Every structure is written in C-alpha cells, then in structure tokens.
Give the backbone structure.
Amino acid sequence: MADTAIFDVDGTLVDTNYQHALAWYQAFRRFDITLPVWRLHRAIGMGGDQLVPHVAGDAVEKEHGDALRDTWVEEFDGMIDSVAAFEGARELLAEVKDRGFRLVLASSGKKKHVEHFLDLVGGRDITDAWTTSEDAEQSKPAPDLVQVALEKVGGNDAVMIGDSTWDAIAAGKADIPTIAVRTGGFSVEELTEAGAITVVDSLTDLRDGLDDTPLGRPGR
C-alpha cells in the first residue's frame, strides 16, 4: 500500500552509468590498476565505499580506497557536463507527484553531483526530499539510503524506481518492491533475479503504464 515513490538518480533519471564506469577506470589506472570497463559497469549503482573492494579486493581498498574515491571524483567532474537527463524524467516525476505520492530521490552520489542532476531534471521544486552520500554510513546495496529516503518524507510504505541490480537488492533488504528501468544497461533477467517486480525499457514506458504498477494511486 505505497504512499512514497523513491527514485534512484544515477542511471535512472540521468544517463551517467557509462561516465561513472569510465571515471572509475581512469581512477584505477592512476594507481597502476587496470580493470575491464565491463566489470566496472556491472558494479555501477554501488557507492564508492562498496565498489572499490567489490571490483579490486580488500587489499586495494585498505591501501588506496579513500584516494581512489577522491580520484574518481576528479575524473567524473571532468565528464559531468556530458551528462543528460533521460527522456521523460521530469514528466514522470511530475506525474507521480500529481498522483499523490510523496516523492524522494535516493542517491549515494556526492552532494555537488546530486544537486547538478536535480537541476537537469528540474527536481528541486517537485521532490519532497533527496539523499546524498552524506546521509548514510553505507551505500547500496546496503539498505541504509533507501530507509533514510523513506524517513525523510515520513512515508509508511514505498516503491523503489531504479536501474541497477544494486537498487533492487538494497530496496529488497528494506522490504520495499522495485520497479526497474533498463536505462542502466542491466538485463531483464538480472533485474528480475535481483528482486524487481516489474522491468520497463524507459521512463516514458513507465509513465505510460503507471496504472498497471503500484504507482497507479497511493494506497494500491
């Protein structure tokens, strides 16, 4: 009986996953660590605190973790102007808000990046709240940010809208169902296996089919 819509930002509302993967690739290269970009892409959706040990191991995290994350920020800052909102992002947010849902954006991104993306989707004036990496001790796939997002708007039950397996896993740990969008480059099978109850190809497809999802009306 959802009363709150929790939207992931990166890869869901704005087209960033491949910039993130390349920024991580370049950051690791600065430390003489070369990882396949496809492997990095599979980890996008995790926060940096989780991603480094996941793709490179605990030893790299212990020796270079914080420096790698700082370097990633530098690399991504140089790419941020190439990021665009996905078609229909603003319209979908407005439609969900108009239907009576509390609207919150759950991002583990840096505050300056999240605020930039809010401007891209025109989200400041229609969202009730948003999160950044500063709001939780652990990022996705831990459930912390999803739980904080719900708490920020005083919601009782929520639906998560995300693009990655990590979104679905994090939401599942918080007993929140996920509607997955394939905009992050993950397959239908991967998203379903991670716990997504519905998978759509695009934000415009989701908006067109809202009546067939838990976002039809609050309380459904």
User: Anything to note?
Assistant: Residues 102 and 154 are 9 Å apart (CA to CA). The domain at 4-16+83-212 is CATH 3.40.50.1000 (Rossmann fold). The mean pLDDT is 95. The beta strands are 4-7, 102-105, 129-130, 158-162, 178-181, 196-200.
